[in-house]
Amino acid sequence: MASTEGGDQPPESKQDSVRIGSTCFSINLNYVKSLLGIFEAAIIILSLICLICAGVGANLACDYTYGSSYGFYESVAGTVFLTDVINYLIFALSIDEKWCMKFIPWLVWHFFIGAIFTFLYLIASIVMVTHTCGRGGYTAAAVFGFITTIVSGVETYFLLLSLRQDHAPTDNKVLNMLGVPKGSTQCPQNPDYDRDILPESKY
What we know:
Largest sheet: 2 strands, antiparallel
Low-confidence stretches: 1-14, 193-199
Order of helices and strands: HEEHHHHHH
Helix content: 55-70%
Strand order of the largest sheet: 1-2
Radius of gyration: 21 Å
Number of helices: 7
Strand content: under 5%
Distance between the termini: 33 Å
């Protein structure tokens, strides 16, 4: 019976991750299928569409008049795209579980980055929609900018729920204001959190 149970275990672990060739990296399927992974992938794709639309709508006359507005929008979309691509690769390849990466409070990082990017995308989209200059590309960029803002906002909301539920009690006043339980003598502050509380989450 012991050999049967042991033989059943490897297929389950293989379903959770797929090794990339002979490298030490593997694709974390749990993260890819999780809400966080889906949201990150959606924001990456939407940000790329925003950049493409802004590029298609480029016009010398409009750029001369509203160049700073378009530059701000493109810098926001580009920053979000690059940051989320890096974040996605870190978790999809399980790099967060290797080396010094495991000591980074990723849940807190994702929440604050998500909140900041949501706010920046909202401002950038408002700026873009008020300076479309009659160009269809800029109009499409503004529309996709608002869509990305909504998706990023929903992701940030779920990250807040995960932060409240998964993060260990702490005396950090900022986290306490967000709903994280306060620390106590029975439960000392610990930057780690329980990864098993939400099965559908990376954490």
